[in-house]
Amino acid sequence: MLKSLISAFLMYSRIPVPQVEWKEENRRYSLGFFPLIGAVCGGLLILLRVICEILNANQLIFAAAAVFLPVLVTGGIHLDGFCDVTDALSSYAEKEKRLEILSDPHIGSFAVMRVFMYLILQTALFTGIHGVKETAAVACGYVISRALSGLSAVCFKAAKKEGTLQSFVQPSHKNFTAAMEIFFIVSAGTAAVVLFPVRGAVCLAVCAAVLFCCRHTAYKNFGGYTGDVCGWFQQLCEIWYLTAFVLTKLITGALA
């Protein structure tokens, strides 16, 4: 279990951890521990909020740093998947060609445009997050997005029988891993709802909608899931969670 935890952090983060041998038994529960990297991102986000309040920093500084934090922790591995899938979907090519584009290390113009739009929107949305309590509720989204991504990997059809994702999925104890993901979803979701009942419930509903929309898109365009598709889904889940939280806050505030 400990080696699976370390393997998850070695693969999906840039956090320094001890090295473990790259073999299947050391990755059996790695996807189940994947949401803990989101917990680290969320914890750092809360710490950032506290520091900004102590220093009386303006909202734009907080927002820009908040966007930078997950990339610092993960090395941008999930944004890379977002870019690859964006290029593949924008090609309107046959399924086999789209899968080839996912494996292409180069980035296309569509991906560049979309990732800039994504980061600008994310920065703007973070300017609407105030206080430690709201920040903590948003931090739950990092856990939920990774738990849903891991659940998709073990429960949904794979587009390819090989690849980085399959090196974690194939040796995994799928039922136990799915149970771990559900535990993290329930725990983080409950925390979000306890902090803000209406906003938390709306965010969870939006995450569920994103999950099934992305599943439909992945099956239709790629024949299933790959590591890039999981990264693409995770980024969409996070931005939609944040959007739902901010919009619900604005709407409920206007109606009050």
At a glance:
The chain has helices spanning 2-12, 30-33, 35-55, 59-74, 77-91, 95-103, 109-126, 131-155, 164-169, 174-195, 197-222, 227-255.
Keywords:
256 residues; single chain
Describe the protein's architecture and organization.
The chain has 256 residues and is mainly α. The protein has one domain (2-250). Helix content is 79%, strand content 0%. The longest helix has 29 residues, at 227-255. The termini are far apart.
- What's the number of domains? 1
Q: Helical region count?
A: 12
Which residues sit in consecutive blocks of at least 5 with pLDDT less than 50?
none
Question: What is the residue-averaged pLDDT?
Answer: 92
Distance between the termini: 49 Å
Structural class: mainly alpha
Number of strands: 0
The amount of helix comes to over 70%
What kind of sheet is the major sheet? none
Approximately how much beta-strand content do the residues carry?
Answer: under 5%
Q: What is the oligomeric state here?
A: single chain
User: What spatial form do the alpha-carbon principal axes imply?
Assistant: globular
Radius of gyration: 18 Å
Helix and strand succession? HHHHHHHHHHHH
Strands, helices and their partners?
Blueprint: H1 2-12, H2 30-33, H3 35-55, H4 59-74, H5 77-91, H6 95-103, H7 109-126, H8 131-155, H9 164-169, H10 174-195, H11 197-222, H12 227-255
